[in-house]
TrEMBL record:
Source species of the chain: Hibiscus sabdariffa (roselle)
Highest taxon above the source species: Eukaryota
Coiled coil: none
Protein name: Phosphoacetylglucosamine mutase
Every Alpha-D-phosphohexomutase C-terminal domain range: 486-549
Length: 562
């Protein structure tokens, strides 16, 4: 490393002191903490992003957001050149960087890493980082810290894209590396025009009796609401009313948003008895999660939740139906050459009823540990892979090779049988591939796909919710002395340590009809999470409660269950 580069790194990092007595971890999805302690972390992640760009010789992204956390928190994560999450191989280095105590320690870590990874670091190569942030007030000063970190690496430049949803930044990084326009207008244009195509392809008999074209969306008082206000004006055939846009003085994620709605199962702020029966949806603070809900009666604040598992099921039904139209020849026989390998990916939090439903549809269902990076990786192994977490984060991935096949097939069909059912199915699948964000789960594009499918099928939200009935479930969290004492295997369904705990959980689970229960250390909070499912709500509650007590007995302080 050149001397000028060494002194620039030392000088820049001496302006940012790391927090004392706090160990930061890149965690499930980037660093997250109270915004007041994050300036040095974000500055260092700026350096890390520049190194990642040098290493891959591609554009990378840096997003400043703490998603559904409270407004005083913030966070930072890197978007890899593919548009996905930072390669997991770099996470330990991210942790070391964030926790280095002095500029000298930081410099020696960088020097070592640059050598080990053979990163071109001679000032001759250029690096480019796209920056985005959500609407948090702390975002602006943290963004400045990121810029300073980036500019402490010779050849690295930052391009500030302003306030964006997390999925918009992922989309733009992916587009940029494919040589496509990577601007917000290009993003809006792609998703609104593919939505229009899907609506135009709705069968006439259904189109003629359409009635239910309004959806009311809770924007969590964050960036998603703001962006949806723009997007909604570009759509035809759908009316979107946005509440909690962040403009009315409401506090981000405070009694609003997808995380609140999914966990508490009550109406968010701004919704109530006037909304009984209406189709409602909720985004989270950075618009990468989406859930739907209805208010069933005006006498209570309870909602009927339509969660990520139901969104997954709706998508799976539609894709499967279109594939089967596409692959039938004139004699209604399946044409095996064009069979796509369609699979779905869930986590252990997926309601057991959803998994049974998907398996009954004849689909291959795979389980991974919690966190988008795990699900995304598995879904990418299919021709068409659909993944969702129950909390509303998910998308559909189409492989490049299958999409090329589909385009060629569509061209053939448009010559041989333009306007046929088969060709319409090909066009619908192509439109889904453009509408749905291929980089990461995206609440805005998923919202439009849900709306297009409901219109296509002529379904109300109630009809959609009846695809299957959720098994009663309960989630609890338990504070323990050291949550890392719990390790798990088999997609987090079995606790390997501490010894004996799994046997105790099994014995408790066996007492309940349709009982299922697992524990795992949270990746975002200092707690152990307990999930229980059973045939009745009382049974699910009692199973969760007993297992929380087991966790407390093995690992806790005595009686600290929340
Ligand atoms: C993060 C993850 C989400 C996961 C959640 C689990 C991303 C983009 N987000 O929000 O997928 O469900 O963490 O939190 O990966 P937990 O570990 O605290 O249960
Ligand atoms: Mg989020």
């Amino acid at each position: 490393m050149k001397e000028e580069q060494r002194s620039l790194l030392l000088q820049s990092s001496s302006l940012f002191s790391p927090p004392q007595g706090v160990k930061l971890s890149y965690g499930t999805a980037g660093f997250r903490a109270d915004a007041s302690i994050l300036r040095s972390t974000v500055h260092r992640v700026g350096m890390l992003a520049a190194l990642r760009s040098l290493k891959t010789q591609s554009v990378v992204g840096l997003m400043i957001t703490a998603s559904h956390n409270k407004v005083t928190d913030n966070g930072v994560k890197i978007v890899d050149p593919s548009g996905g999450m930072l390669s997991q191989e770099w996470e330990p280095f991210a942790d070391q960087l964030a926790n280095a105590q002095t500029p000298e320690a930081l410099l020696s870590l960088i020097t070592e890493f640059v050598e080990k990874e053979r990163i071109p670091f001679d000032g001759l190569q250029s690096a480019e980082i796209l920056l985005g942030r959500d609407t948090r007030p702390s975002g602006e000063s943290l963004l400045e810290a990121a810029k300073q970190g980036i500019s402490s690496i010779f050849g690295a430049i930052a391009l500030d894209l302003g306030i964006l949803t997390t999925p918009q930044l992922h989309w733009m990084v992916r587009a940029r590396n494919k040589g496509k326009p990577a601007t917000e207008p290009a993003y809006f244009e792609q998703i609104s025009s593919s939505f229009r195509c899907l609506v135009d392809l709705i069968p006439n008999e259904i189109k003629s009796n359409k009635k239910d074209n309004t959806v009311v969306v809770d924007g969590a008082d964050g960036v998603g609401g703001e962006k949806l206000e723009v997007l909604k004006n570009m759509l035809t055939g759908l009316v979107i009313e946005v509440r909690n846009t962040g403009k009315g003085g409401g506090l981000l994620n405070d009694g609003v948003g997808a995380d609140y709605v999914q966990k508490e199962k009550v109406v968010p702020r701004g919704f109530g008895s006037n909304d009984v029966g209406i189709r409602c949806a909720s985004l989270d603070g950075d618009a990468d999660r989406l859930v739907y809900f209805t208010v069933p009666t005006n006498s209570s604040s309870k909602i009927d939740l339509v969660d990520g598992d139901k969104i997954l099921s709706l998508f799976a039904v539609f894709i499967k139906e279109q594939l089967s139209i596409l692959t039938k020849d004139g004699n209604e026989n399946p044409n095996n050459n064009s069979q796509a390998r369609l699979g779905v990916v869930q986590t252990a939090y997926a309601n057991g009823a959803s998994t049974d439903y998907l398996k009954n549809l004849g689909l291959e269902v795979i389980f991974t540990p919690t966190g988008v990076k795990h699900l995304h990786e598995k879904a990418a192994q299919f021709d068409i892979g659909i993944y969702f977490e129950a909390n509303g984060h998910g998308t559909i991935l189409f492989s490049e090779s299958w999409l090329s096949w589909l385009e060629a097939r569509n061209n053939e069909l448009s010559l041989a049988s333009a306007g046929s059912e088969q060709q319409k199915a090909a066009l619908r699948l192509l439109s889904v591939g453009k509408l749905i964000n291929q980089a990461v789960g995206d609440a805005l594009s998923c919202l439009l796909l849900v709306e297009a499918i409901l219109q296509h099928k002529g379904w109300s939200i109630q009809k959609w919710n009846e695809l299957y009935q959720d098994l009663p479930s309960r989630q609890l969290k338990v504070k323990v002395v050291d949550r890392t004492a719990v390790t798990t295997t088999n997609a987090e369904t079995i606790a390997v340590s501490p010894p004996g705990i799994q046997e105790a959980i099994d014995a408790e689970t066996a007492k309940h009809l349709k009982g299922r229960c697992f524990i795992r250390p949270s990746g975002t909070e200092d707690v152990i999470r307990v999930y229980a499912e059973a045939s009745t709500q009382e049974a699910a509650d009692s199973l969760a409660d007993s297992v929380a007590k087991i966790v407390d007995r093995f690992l806790g302080f005595g009686s600290s269950k929340q």
